[in-house]
Amino acid sequence: MEQEEQVEQAVASVEPPSLLGVDFISKLPTEMIASICELLDKRSLHNFRMTSKHIHAQSYTSFFAHHFRVSSFTFTRDGLKKLVEFSKDPNIRPEIKVIRLILVAFPKQGKEHLSGLWHTPSEAMAAILAVEDGEYDVTGARIRQIRKYRKNIRRNRRRAYGRYQEDQNLLRRSGDDVNLLAEALRRLPALEEIDTVDIYGVDSPWGRGKIIEDLGEMPFTASMESWIPMKHDTYESRFEVERELKITSAHSVGAVLGAIRCSVIKFNGILELNGVPHSVRFAKWPHCSRLSLSATPARSFSLSMLADMKDTLSGLKALRVSTFSYVDRKYEDDPVEEYDIEWLYQLLERTTGLTSFSMNDNGARSNRTIDLDMMHSMEYRSITFPRLKAFMLLNAECETPVFIRFLEKHKTTLRRVCLDNINFRATTPLHTPDDRDTFLFVRWSERNYWRVIGYQSVSTELMDDYAQLEFRESLRSVICMNEALPVD
What CDD domains does the entry give (predicted)? Predict the structure, then answer.
C-alpha cells in the first residue's frame, strides 16, 4: 500500500507541460493561413496579422487581396489617377478583380449646399485661433469674428467647387478619363468585373477624401436620390440638376466602352452599367462632331467603334444594365425623356458569348418610359445568345408571344429566368388572376426548371398556345427577387 501511494504521489508531482505559450498558428502552412485570412473581415484581419511576426509576413499577400479585390474609385481625375497608380504597383495589381467607378457630379446648384461650418480638426483649431488672436471684451465681437471666419470657409469651398466643375468638364471634353482608364485596364491581369455605380457603397471610394476635405461634404452622385432639395428650389433648378446628372451618367457609358476599346484587351468578365439614361446618343463616326457640347466626344467613343470590339467583347460573360428616366423639357404635359438605346442593341449584337443578361428599367416615371419592349426589338434584330444561362428583366412591358419565342430559342441553355413587375401584353382580351403576385413555372425538360416571378396579366389558355406554361400559387419563400444571377 505504501508503494502504491508513493507511485501516485510521484505521478501527481509531475506537472503537465503548459501549452499556453506555444504558437501553433505560426506553424501552419502559408496556404492555410491565406484560407483563414479570407474568412476574416478587415478589422479581424489586422488583429490576426498583429499576433506574431511570422503570421504578419505569411499573410502579406492576403492583406492586399482582402483590401484591393474590390476597389472603388470616384470617376474624377484624382480617382482615375489613383487607379493608374494601383495598376503600376506589383503588389496591388494582381489582386484587383473588381473595379467600381462611382459617378460623382458637381451641379452648379450644389454650391448652395456648401456651409461654413468646420468639419476637420485643423479647421476647428484655426477657428479657435482666429477668435483668440484679438482681445474681445464683448461677446458680440467674438460672434462677429466667428461669422467672418465661417464666411471665408464657405467662400473657399465655393471656389474649390467651381474648380471641380471645370475639371470634370475638361476631363470629359479632352477624353483624359478614357485614356486614364484604358491605361489602367492594360495592367490588370486578374480583372473580372467593371461596374459604374451611381450611389455610394459601404466602402469609401478612392479619390473622395480630398473632395470632402476641400468641400466639407461628400460630392453628389449621378443618382437623383443623392440630391437634397432646398427650400428655394424651383422646377427649373431641379431640371438643371437632372440635366447635369444625366450628362455624367450618359458619358460614363461611352467612357467605359471607349476605354475597353483603347486598352486592346479581351475582356472576359462582367460589365455592369447603373443609372444609364433612357436616351443615350453617341456620334456614328469618330470624325463626326459632337451631338452637343455635353455629349461624349466622338474620338472617345462612337457607334462605329463597336464594330471593332467584336473580338474584344466576344468573351463577355455577363451584362447588367439599369436605366433611369430623366426629365425632358420637350414634353410639357409629360416631361420625361424618350427611350433610345440604340447603343445597347449594337452592343448586344457583338456579345454573343453572354451567359447572363439583366435589364432593369429602374426609373420609369410615366406610361411612355415604361413602354420598354426590348424583347421585340431583339427579335427584330435577330439577337440571340447561344450560351445564355440566366436572364433577368425588371420593370418593363413585354409582348407574351415575343417572350415565349425568346424562351424557345434559348431553351437548351437557359437555367434561370427572373421577372419582376412585368406587364405582359397580348392582342386578345386577357384574364387577370386574383393574386397578381404569382409564380410562373416553366419546364422544358426535367433538367431545366425555371421559376419566373412577376405581375401576370395573361391567361393560362393564351400561354398554352405557345408553350406548356402553368400558373401556380404564390410561393415567395421559393425564390428571392433580388437574388444575384449566377455566372459560370
Answer: F-box_SF
